[in-house]
């Protein structure tokens, strides 16, 4: 596999100086090697570029998040040796920011962009949401979600590896669901509000989330963020059958590897090798991770 490394001078131009990025796992299961890959990119790029890392627990999924998983996540992260600059003590949780989400929603509502929607996923199907509830005038109530009306316009994002990205999120996905029918804030909305509040200038995440970019940039613009963060989408660790690692399918790699006697450095080395950052697995302490990106000339290597 060809390694993906950003061009650090170009990255610094995109972020307007040393980046502020975040490691933002969801406490819905145990960490696996895919999370370690994300941590390698988050801490490695941030430290190589003289930036900072914010730890944030994205617990917007209140049905699946568990205190057990949160405690295990924090303990595994400490064991690996990845130390955040803020958000660790005490842990920063999305669920603590309800007031910020309510204020953002109220601002959008004052602009006439928020409307209630009673459509299920089955009714919408795989196509973009067609706005069928826009003009129905449904009252917000339990069992109905809330959507934000998007402008049918092109948005641009800067990916420091993939290059400039242009999307029309309104046409590609439809109006964004910001609160689901169970009353929970959605990922797209919560992460956009949190990234703006935390001053995140570089979003580092797996390639499976690249399709979220346009919607989040559009939402950020509606909420007054004139300059969106830059993005870095990195490769995923895959099963031999082509599936990505998943907490929901039982890929609890870090706990299993620890029980087998692997050291933290060996686990980080396995993850780095899995995405081509090193040629073969070898012990790689967290303190050496920035060296994987220092002096990076960019792109795919």
Overall description:
The strands form four sheets. Strands 3-4-7 form a three-stranded antiparallel beta sheet. The protein has 301 residues and is α/β, with parallel strands linked by helices. Helix 2 crosses helix 10. It has a domain at 8-96 and 156-163 and 187-292: 3-Layer(aba) Sandwich (Rossmann fold). The chain has helices at 8-15, 33-48, 67-80, 98-110, 121-124, 169-172, 187-197, 213-222, 253-259, 264-274, and strands at residues 20-23, 52-55, 114-117, 145-148, 155-159, 163-167, 176-179, 202-206, 230-234. The N and C termini lie close together (9 Å). The protein is 33% helix and 13% strand. The longest helix has 16 residues, at 33-48.
Short note summarizing the structure:
By secondary structure, the chain is α/β, with parallel strands linked by helices.
Q: Which helices and strands, and how do they pair?
A:
Elements: H1 8-15, E1 20-23, H2 33-48, E2 52-55, H3 67-80, H4 98-110, E3 114-117, H5 121-124, E4 145-148, E5 155-159, E6 163-167, H6 169-172, E7 176-179, H7 187-197, E8 202-206, H8 213-222, E9 230-234, H9 253-259, H10 264-274
Parallel strand pairs: 1-2, 8-9
Antiparallel strand pairs: 3-4, 4-7, 5-6
Helix pairs in contact: 2-10, 7-8
